[in-house]
């Protein structure tokens, strides 16, 4: 019962903060340069990080921040819930996120996303979506933005394993930038398919940048998957399945 109450309190703050951001920040953001726009709108993500910890009894164990490169990179992480999309925005700003275009239609949240120049994809047209990721991803990296791509392509529940897509590694290889791997167990604290949050330790492991020069995308994505899965074996409370 206590987790239900905590979750209700959390969502009250969640939506209140979204409303305040929409009223105070959205009217100003379009008139700012991208860097200033990002700093302003990212205040909401900083608040959620703190509010989730306080309201839901979660402790963060984040290791490897010192390994984050100064320059642009392609961030690849396992995808379990909404929490990592928030964390990865504050981990290395500014970052361009590859996401499904439906998210841009959500009031306030989607409007703010549009202002941050994401790469929005139509999943009903996979060939076109892949081309879009490759061309726009390389272009964004060329402007100094990092790019966030979830190699699993969609949310995957803890204890479930999905084949990694190599599009992020292709972008990194073409742009000549490193891949920054990130592993976490956020779905055990913030379930992707249920609104009730769970207290406990939320663990994040940030890996050393994986170089792409002189390597093929297949080699890079294999190293990314191997590293993330090895970390999940250590930090997950739900047993990991073997690779199919």
TrEMBL record:
- List the InterPro entries: Plipid/glycerol_acylTrfase
Record-annotated Phospholipid/glycerol acyltransferase domain positions:
73-187
Sorted keywords for this record are: Acyltransferase, Membrane, Transferase, Transmembrane, Transmembrane helix
Q: In which pathway does it act?
A: Lipid metabolism
The organism's superkingdom is given as: Bacteria
Q: Name one Pfam family in it.
A: Acyltransferase
Annotated TM spans: 12-32
Name any one GO molecular function: acyltransferase activity
Give the matching PANTHER family: 1-ACYL-SN-GLYCEROL-3-PHOSPHATE ACYLTRANSFERASE (PTHR10434:SF40)
- Name by which UniProt lists this protein: 1-acyl-sn-glycerol-3-phosphate acyltransferase
Organism, as annotated: Halomonas colorata
């Amino acid at each position: 019962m206590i987790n239900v109450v905590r979750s209700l309190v959390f969502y009250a703050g969640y939506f209140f903060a979204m409303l305040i951001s929409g009223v105070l920040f959205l009217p100003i953001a379009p008139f700012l340069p991208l860097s200033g726009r990002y700093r302003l709108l990212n205040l909401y993500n900083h608040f959620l990080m703190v509010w989730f910890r306080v309201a839901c009894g979660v402790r963060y164990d984040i290791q490897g921040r010192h390994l984050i490169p100064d320059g642009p990179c392609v961030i690849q992480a396992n995808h379990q819930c909404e929490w990592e999309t928030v964390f990865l925005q504050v981990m290395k700003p500014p970052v361009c996120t590859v996401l499904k275009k439906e998210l841009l239609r959500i009031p306030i949240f989607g409007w703010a996303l549009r202002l941050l120049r994401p790469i929005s994809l139509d999943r009903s047209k996979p060939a076109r979506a892949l081309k879009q990721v490759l061309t726009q991803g390389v272009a964004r990296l060329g402007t100094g933005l990092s790019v966030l791509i979830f190699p699993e392509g969609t949310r995957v529940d803890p204890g479930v394993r999905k084949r990694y897509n190599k599009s992020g590694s292709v972008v990194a290889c073409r742009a000549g930038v490193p891949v920054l791997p990130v592993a976490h167990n956020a779905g055990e604290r913030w379930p992707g398919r249920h609104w009730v949050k769970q207290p406990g330790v939320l663990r994040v492991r940030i890996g050393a940048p994986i170089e792409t020069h002189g390597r093929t995308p297949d080699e890079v994505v294999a190293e990314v998957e191997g590293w993330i899965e090895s970390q999940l074996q250590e930090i997950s409370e739900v047993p990991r399945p073997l690779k199919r």
